[in-house]
Design brief:
Blueprint: E1 25-26, H1 27-35, E2 46-49, H2 57-65, E3 71-74, H3 78-84, E4 108-111, H4 117-124, H5 129-140, H6 144-171, H7 173-183, E5 193-196, H8 202-213, H9 228-232, H10 234-248, H11 254-262, H12 264-270, H13 276-283, H14 297-309, H15 312-318, H16 323-334
Parallel strand pairs: 2-5, 3-4, 3-5
Antiparallel strand pairs: 1-2
Helix pairs in contact: 1-11, 4-6, 5-6, 6-14, 14-15, 15-16
């Protein structure tokens, strides 16, 4: 795999203002800028954004030539594609074979249904019988958006952004597993890769959070920190205190991950079409509060993973993945060697 050219955090800009793509940024750059001191993550490998449907010809050229994006992880639902493409039926098409035709030609696009059928069934079970009947009737007669508005009002609005994310972790495991399998593929390396949903906020925030959690020092199975040589060295104890402050600034932290997530608030408003986020939530029946980021999103999701699975390693194992291998592959790919 030909790797993008590394840049320094003093020269790189973490965002590019496209004409028709909101909330775009290089995750590696945002983490490096926050951590400081030196490069921690490889830049030009992992990107995030809102939907790509409105990309202009100039946007598409910049996307492919300046950022050399190879793979897109589209996290949206079928309903979102229907809503956004009413006036542009060719923007996102399904071929007769069921394969995804990319919005930007030349990019390999994978549909990762974070809100998939298993999660939809879980939400349907939370409806009243009367509401469930209405949803079924709407779906039978092709009024999918009307059905989604009922679910949005009675379920999604009540459980909130964090609640939807934890439900996705529990009920959309097959899709999340598929995403990790793509990210660690040896036969078809996906990088540089971009993940996006509609706003690039919650589902995108969730998958980026899961990826970054794999890069935390606590997720590494490396024995270096507990090797006999380190414990037997008399000089290590005397130098540890002097190097502790610099070590903290030279690794990815939860604070850095929260910082990347928080940048979405400004990211949705930076694009000339930033006001479109209001229309997005209105189309799906969500309240205006769903436009904004949740300040406690990262800490709450991390707490859920820790309390139910023992952390990211336990969660990966629950998906049927080799957790140590996944973490090792992601760290080898996305972290800069010391």
């Amino acid at each position: 795999m030909e790797k993008p050219i590394q840049t320094t955090t003093t020269q790189a800009e973490y965002v590019h203002v496209f004409q028709g793509i909101e909330n775009f940024r290089d995750v590696g750059v945002t983490i490096n800028l926050f951590v400081g001191e030196r490069l921690i993550m490889r830049e030009g490998f992992l990107f995030r954004s809102a939907r790509l449907d409105g990309a202009t010809a100039e946007d598409k050229q910049t996307f492919k030539e300046s950022y050399v994006i190879k793979t897109v992880l589209d996290l949206r639902t079928d309903t979102e594609r229907i809503v956004r493409n009413r006036g542009n039926p060719s923007a996102y098409a399904e071929s007769q074979t069921g394969e995804v035709e990319p919005i930007i030609v030349g990019l390999e696009t994978h549909r990762i249904r974070i809100i998939g059928w298993n999660l939809e069934k879980a939400m349907l079970r939370m409806l009243t019988w009367w509401s469930l009947l209405k949803v079924i009737v709407f779906m039978l007669f092709g009024f999918r958006i009307s059905a989604v508005k009922i679910i949005s009002k009675e379920v999604i609005e009540k459980v909130g952004l964090v609640g939807m994310s934890t439900m996705a972790l529990e009920h959309s495991g097959n899709e999340i597993k598929k995403m990790f399998e793509i990210l660690i593929s040896d036969t078809n390396p996906p990088y540089p890769v971009l993940a996006h949903c509609t706003q690039g906020k919650d589902r995108t925030g969730l998958v980026i959070l899961l990826i970054l959690l794999c890069l935390l020092p606590s997720s590494s199975s490396s024995p270096s920190s507990s090797s006999p040589s380190s414990s037997s060295s008399s000089s290590s104890s005397s130098s540890s205190s002097s190097s502790s402050s610099s070590a903290k600034s030279q690794q990815i932290t939860l604070q850095a991950i929260s910082h990347d997530y928080s940048l979405t608030q400004a990211g949705l408003l930076r694009c000339p079409r930033g006001h479109d986020a209001v229309g997005i939530v209105n189309d799906t029946g969500l309240p205006p509060a769903f436009i904004s980021v949740d300040p406690g999103f990262v800490s709450d999701v991390v707490h859920f993973l820790q309390s139910k699975y023992g952390g990211i390693m336990g969660y990966l194992a629950s998906l049927g993945l080799d957790a140590e291998y996944v973490v090792c592959r992601l760290q080898e790919t996305l972290l800069v060697s010391p």
